[in-house]
Amino acid sequence: MSEELERILARLTEPDNAVIQQATAELKQAFKDPAIIPALCAVMTGSQNPQVRQSAAVMLRMRVRKHWKKISPDHRERHTVRHSLSQLCAVLVKHETPDRWPALLALLNQSTKSNNPQDRQVGLLLLSKVVGSNPEPFKPHYKQLLQLFGTVLLDLNNPTALYYCILTLTAITAYTGTEEMNLMRSLIPKLLIALKHLIQADQDQASEAMEVFDELMESEVSIVVPHIAEIVRFCLEAVLKHKLLQPILQVVFPILSAAPPPGEEDPEDEENDTEGDSENPKHFAVQVIDTMALHMPPEKLFNQLLPFTQACLSSENPYERKGGLMCMAVLAEGCADHIRTKMLSSMLQTVCRSLSDNNQVVRSAALFALGQFSEHLQPDVSKFHAELMPLLHGYLSAVNQTKIGHMTKAFYALENFLENLVFKLPLFFAPFEFFRVIIVIIKKKVEVELKQLNKIKTIPLAAECVQLGLNLTDAVDDPDLRRCTYSLFSAVSDVSPDCLAPHLPPITTVMLLSLRSTEGVTVNEDKQFVLLDDDDADGEEGDVDLDEESETEVDDRDVAGYVSVSFILSLSFSFM
User: Fold this and answer.
1) d(CA 412, CA 392)
2) CB contact set of 55 (below 8 Å; sequence gap of 6+)
3) Which is nearest to 377 in space by CA: 331, 432, 429, 320?
4) Residue 35: CB partners within 8 Å, gap ≥ 6?
5) Helix, strand, coil % in the chain, rounded to nearest 5
């Protein structure tokens, strides 16, 4: 209908009276159609003829003003229409700041404070769209908006209004400053209550609204800190109440136990692992379980978690077995009391069996789990030292010397055990202490002998090297050559000072000449300043050339002086 209506309105602008009369008759007939309102809107926004658009806008205003109650409720109150109109306003706000559109601010102020719930809902929808499209121009109004949010969040019977209110709050969070901190902080308790009601009304909207916490954590974490306990409790209650733990684990465990692409290894299993946190899906899957272990009741978590873990540990796939062990490892910190009192023995048996697994990735995961146990399950885990220490000793003894990247996990576990055993293991400590002292003594003796041996090997060549350096210095006057000979003399003075002693007079003479030399030091100040003050393009190029030449001269010709100073210091210490 919109195309036909546009043709009628176009004929109304013709200079022919007969055409205008015919178009007027057709227009009266078109106005009897209930779809005239959407058609006028389409022409008003889509026509290429400005006169036609103006005519459509005028007729639409007159039609709505006189016949509002006769308009179909679907056309008046359909949410998609409101949503589209609010998006249209948002696009306009991107190009026109709110201060240049006072009618918009007046409409927002009137609708969001209306006593009619439908009007408030429409006003908050419009507010969320225009602020979300361009939050910064609204910054002067942030205090007023935050005060409005404090009122809207109490309207728990209007979940749609709560949803749009939280979306607007999310949009402005990154732009708030210190002046709005207190107002933002006071909204958190109301925000949590509003989200609880929104979850019951619409979980999809609640899920999107909860992104406000992500924005607060990234932008204004100081606002969240005083309420962090309530936020964590709220999140955990939402997970448990809506039975989300099982779906979460169903997603996490396949990621945790997935095999890497063919020909590749997991980052933690690579030989050159740098021990840094790797940003990969498995790393985040482990973090999810670790976070749940830290904040959820152990009994409820283990009831859901154990079937997944047991299935992984009994699998033929080594990466699934590894996933089960990694899960057990990260449970040690958050569920320490529960494991120590009820499950320590059985979990240790599982880990110890995995130390002899035929796959290296499984053994590495078992070592990591053992290290976590020894760190977080003390002192109970130390009671099993008689079984665990021989296993670690045997593992270290049988290690493949060509692949030792996983050994860091073995030493991690061993270190944690030994830190907590103290004097409980005399059978292990006595020989270890004895051999430690012996190794230190042997190491010192070997270092001394090797140093003397190196000197003995170089003494026959030292005298020849000194003489060669002196001959070259006398024959060739070159700064680079002098620099090399001074380095040579410095090395000889460290290895064999006696070989250098007979040649000290000529060497010191050459060094003193280098120290007194002014090669490359003289600066032509007049030319330099003339060129620096020149505004012509050619002069600028001259500046660059002059700077490059002067730097080259200093580097090439004056460096011998610096090397000679270094050599004098070395020589002084050698003959002290």
Assistant:
1) 11
2) 9, 12, 13
3) 331
4) 1
5) 80, 0, 20
Other Cβ atoms within 10 Å of 180 Cβ, number: 19
Cis peptide before 379 (omega within 30 of 0): yes
Residue 60: closest CA among 125, 5, 107:
5
Per-position DSSP letters for 309-330, written without gaps between them = HHHHHT-S-HHHHHHHHHHHHH
Spatial distance between the Cα atoms of 384 and 399, rounded to a whole number of angstroms: 23
- Crossing angle for the helix pair 559-574 and 479-495, nearest 10 degrees? 10
DSSP state string for 248-299: HHHHHHHHHTPPPPTT---GGGSTT---SPP-SHHHHHHHHHHHHHHHS-HH
123 near 114, Cβ under 8 Å?
yes
Tokens of 351: 């880990």
**What is the amino acid identity at position 109?**
N
pTM here? 0.44
Q: Is 283 exposed, middle or buried (CB count within 10 Å of its CB: 0-12, 13-18, 19+)?
A: middle
Residues in the chain: 576
Select from 336, 333, 325 the least CA-distant residue to 268.
325
Chain-centroid distance of CA 157 in Å reads 38
SS3 track for 159-191: HHHHHHHHHHHHHHHCCCCHHHHHHHHHHHHHH
Tokens for 158?
A: 């209007």
Distance (Å, whole) CA 98 – CA 104: 7
Q: Which pair of tokens denotes residue 356?
A: 């002899």
Reading the block at residue 493, the tokens are: 């003075």
DSSP H/E element including 412: helix 407-421
Nearest-10 Cα torsion for 380, 384, 388, 389 = 100
Mean pLDDT of each 10-residue bin along the chain, 576 residues long: 82 84 86 78 81 82 62 55 58 64 75 78 81 82 86 87 88 84 86 86 83 81 76 71 75 86 72 54 84 85 88 90 91 89 88 84 86 83 77 67 58 68 50 47 50 55 75 75 77 74 83 74 48 42 43 45 50 50
Cα(132)–Cα(145) distance, integer angstroms:
13
Contact indicator for 41, 66 with CB cutoff of 8 Å: no
CA dihedral (423, 424, 430, 432) in degrees, to 10, reads -90
Q: Which amino acid is it at 512?
A: L
Question: 149: how many CB neighbours lie within 10 A of its CB?
Answer: 25
